Amino acid sequence: VDLLTIRADRDRYYYGMDIMFERHSNIINLLCLDAPALLPVLLDGLIWRSRIAENGQRRVNYYIKHLVVDEQGDFAKSVEWIRDHADPKIVVHPVISMVTDMVWSRVALRSFMAGKAWFIFTLLVFVSSQSLLGRLQLDETGNPPDTVRIALFVSRCFIYLCSLGQWLMLHLKSTVRDYRQGHLIRYGRCAIPEYLMDWQSLISFFLTVLLIMMLCMEPILHCLNSSDGKLFTQQCAEGKSLNSVYSVVSGVAIVLYFLLLLDLSVFSTR
């Protein structure tokens, strides 16, 4: 236990902290698997507290370099190992809280919000193309004006090209990667890529399937050869026969889109 107690002052470490992490870069994972009782000892040693109090407060230094980046300069897997360990007492340790708060506020938050802003824009376009534009200013034949039909066609093309295309690329890459690396979950003779064990990946996979079904049943495409002179109409015989099923599928897809927004509730790790 004493060897894992990393003592430090403001200038340097004792007990070869750098050497220990260089020799055992996965020491967090090793302790999580084989000696979880020693994790608090190791983490406590990464905190230096001054003996002198100023205005009722003491200076505290956190030595977290090796928990943030590895030897190659990439993100270290320490937080991932702590997450997999699933010990709430370790998760709320001051060192782990400092690491997660710093990575979230200085690195992850901006990219997370940029990705979600694009996703929200895609969702708004999807809702508009499925529920709003098609019901504006309908004439006696049930067709909206030409400008609305063009906007509806452009919106659905955007969904099929940008949203569906993005999901297809993501799932193809993840599936190929898991099969190449052997990261598979087997149910009898069926092998499922491991990434689908994450609930968001599973929901996005089903959303991709629904978008493919919608593309195959798209009424505008089925009415291109029988539009009676009206551009991008949905009111041909073939389109009307598909409208009910298409509406059900698009309704389920909207629900899945909103489910993927649940992680927007995470704006802070505190």
Overview of this structure, please?
The chain has 270 residues and is mainly alpha-helical. It has eleven helices and four strands, in the order αααββαααααββααα. The chain has helices at 17-23, 27-34, 39-44, 65-68, 78-85, 88-91, 94-132, 146-181, 199-217, 219-222, 237-259; strands spanning 47-54, 57-62, 184-187, 190-193. The strands form two sheets. A two-stranded antiparallel ribbon has the order 1-2. Strands 3-4 form a two-stranded antiparallel ribbon. It starts with 16 loop residues before the first helix and ends in an 11-residue tail after the last helix.
What's this, in brief?
The chain has 270 residues and is mainly alpha-helical. The protein is built from eleven helices and four strands.
Core attributes:
mainly alpha; elongated; 270 residues; two-stranded antiparallel ribbon; 11 helices
Radius of gyration: 27 Å
Spatial shape: elongated
> Which class best fits the helix and strand makeup?
mainly alpha
Q: Please report the distance between the alpha carbons of the first and last residues.
A: 30 Å
Regions with little confidence, pLDDT below 50 for 5+ residues: none
Considering DSSP H and I runs of 4 or more, what fraction of the residues is helical?
Answer: 55-70%
Strand content: 5-15%
The total of helices stands at: 11
Q: Please give the order of strands in the largest beta sheet.
A: 1-2
Largest sheet: 2 strands, antiparallel
SS elements, strand count: 4
H-E string: HHHEEHHHHHEEHHH
Mean residue pLDDT: 84
